[in-house]
From TrEMBL:
This is Glutathione peroxidase. The active site is at C35. GO terms for molecular function: peroxidase activity. It comes from the Bacteria. The keyword Oxidoreductase applies. GO terms for biological process: cellular response to oxidative stress.
Amino acid sequence: MSIYDYEVKTIQGETGTLSDYKGKVMLIVNTATKCGFAPQFDGLEKLHQNYKDQGLAILGFPSSQFMNQELDKDADIAEACRINHGVTFPLYSKIDVNGDSAHPLYKYLASQAPGALGTKAIKWNFTKFLVDRGGNVVSRFAPTDTPEKIQSHIEKLL
């Protein structure tokens, strides 16, 4: 199964797949608005603005699996991201990224780009997966890797 085949639900409740992103470089991030790493939304939005016309797609997947640091309702998440960080990149409905209830997309991402010591579990909010234009997961970045630190990796794929 290709990354483009996974079914996802937008934060507005529309169901689709990632096929709209065929031929684009994707940065897929599990987010949380109440996390200490939430200021990274600003850097992600800057990447989105600077590179969207060159084929970069930033995709945010809110999750509350780490110390319940995400709001309960998708509408509240979208509003917080827009008001507090000016987010205009696509956000998706809140999901689980670990365990039996993990979204299939995240099971796939973790299997394609394991973390430190080969672990597949997502360690915290703002873990980032970089996907090339062919749909291949090429890198996994830790929550502490800011958008600015990974910009050069994105530029190489664009």
